[in-house]
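Problem 12. The chain below contains 300 residues. Write out its predicted structure in token notation.
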Amino acid sequence: MTTKEAQAEVTAAAGGEVGRASLWGDAWRDLRRRWIFWCSVSVLAVVAVMAARPGLFTGTVANEGCDPNLAKLGPSGEHWFGTDLAGCDYYAHVVHGARPTLLIGVAVTLFALLIAVVFGMLSGYYGGVVDAVVSRLTDVFFGLPFVLGGTVILVAFPGHGIGAMTLVLVLLGWTTMIRVMRGQVISVRDADYVQAARLLGASDRRVMARHILPNAIAPVIVVATLNVGNVIVGEATLDFLGVGLQYPQVSWGLQLGQAKDAFMAHPHLLIFPAAFLSATVLSFLLLGDAVRDALDPKLR
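Solution.
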């Protein structure tokens, strides 16, 4: 082998290592070593399957087969979680309650993330009037309390379902992510590689999509992961207060609301939905913390 061939092999090998190194690749290798990540993902996977295919966990349909004579029975071999105030199988209600809770939490976060990415990118990249308008609009919505604002809106428009709940929570839940996105875009818009792309004739759309977005999105993803748990808590709170989803719909928040007056005599009505809700929210929060630590080299 000649000296030039050896140098070529070394250069190729070094180039391959550099090509394989990336923020997301390093983050994934770090996440795989964290037991908290796998515990959180396992719990969320079970909840997701429960929401998508409740028939795999129970053959009983929600609000069917109810017997008022069997109301408020404790856990037994026939009814694993007991029965509710109407004599319905409580285990079936807990299983079916996963779908609206998880659906609203994920849908609200995805729509809020889309709003944050689009308008945060435009605000941070162009600045000036665009930044001023977006920032002032964000300040207005940021001043609206999440639960209180949702309560006022939902009381004013009764007869709502999952779609209306999602819309209201999106309306109140995009402000934090857009601020993070705007700050990240401002921090990278004048970087050398962005300036080089502009000098080479790249359009604003290409610069934002190919150079700024990949380097600014990581902290927003972390906030979005944490936000799912916060939205689920907000949705359950609104259901608990009686302004969220309404019967005959089933959700963990509704079950908590129905159980609040019978907790002392029938604690199973509160314990089971509260345990599933707490495990789901805690899993999203722990997952967000793990992703944040993996994406921030300073915390490794």
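Discussion. The first helix runs from residue 3 to 20. Students who got a different answer should revisit the alignment rule from Section 12.3.
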